[in-house]
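User: Okay, second chain of the day. Same drill as before: sequence in, structure tokens out.
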Amino acid sequence: MAEVKNHNYAFEALKAMPPDQTRGIFIPEIYRTFESGDRFFIDWESQEGTAVDSIARAIGLLTSIQAPPGQKPGPVGGDRIRYHPGFGSKTSHTKAP
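Assistant: Same drill. Structure tokens below.
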């Protein structure tokens, strides 16, 4: 699934950064995913509490992550965007490059 690929890309990119830059920033690890009917579920790590300053730092850090070489707009590795409220069918009509 495209959203999981994007999430895992950000998770791995954050793990590769120096710990002093990422301290207090949390991207949950995905344990498993599954579908039930037309719904998609992600089982991921949880963490208690949210601090506004760490959210602001996380946004700044995440926007500094470079896309993979040759990546075009859309999901990492190309795929259809699924389960987005903007698509009546819940899936984009075309596959991202």
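The two ends are 15 Å apart (CA to CA).

User: Thanks, on to the next one.
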